[in-house]
Design a protein that fits this description.
192 residues; 3 helices; seven-stranded antiparallel beta sheet; alpha+beta; binds zinc ion
Amino acid sequence: MRRILPILFHTPVALSFLLFVFVSVLWIRSYHLSDQFSWRSSSGSKAVNSAQGFLTLHLTQAGWPLQPADSLGFQYQRDLSSRPVNYLTCLSADATDIDTNWEKAGFAWYSKRATRGAYSAIGVAPFWSLATFTALLPLAWATRQIRSRLRNSIGLCPTCNYDLRASPTRCPECGAETNTATPSPVSGRGRG
Ligand SMILES: [Zn+2]
């Protein structure tokens, strides 16, 4: 295990797994606490926050040249949790604003582009979709490992399923090297 861990943590599988754990923790917490990660600059802000089973993304592009320096940069904030809302409808509206309101199966995208150039957008995605997405790679990897070990344990080539009882170290069919240096005890080959 100690030898595997450092290798694992350099692979996309491990990164995906870590992301899955992170997403799951935020998901569970989101029902009572909202975690918010934000980045503010003089040209706008980007923020991601958890909201009762959903992850929401908030984008604002607007000129804020008079922002105090200590309000810029990365910030983390924790708050009481509430459902995601489209607060863009509360912003001052102009007849020439371009609004987008898209909603489907818990996913949503709302945006407002004002004629004077300011742009705001809110994206909503249910946590189950993010947890499923980040679990795909680790699950595929784990399934592959289990199948490979199963094939190995019953004396089949992990790559092509060829019966390796007669040549346990290398597959005569596809040439794959196997790590079954000792013959399996069930084979009973070469005795009597
Ligand atoms: Zn093979």
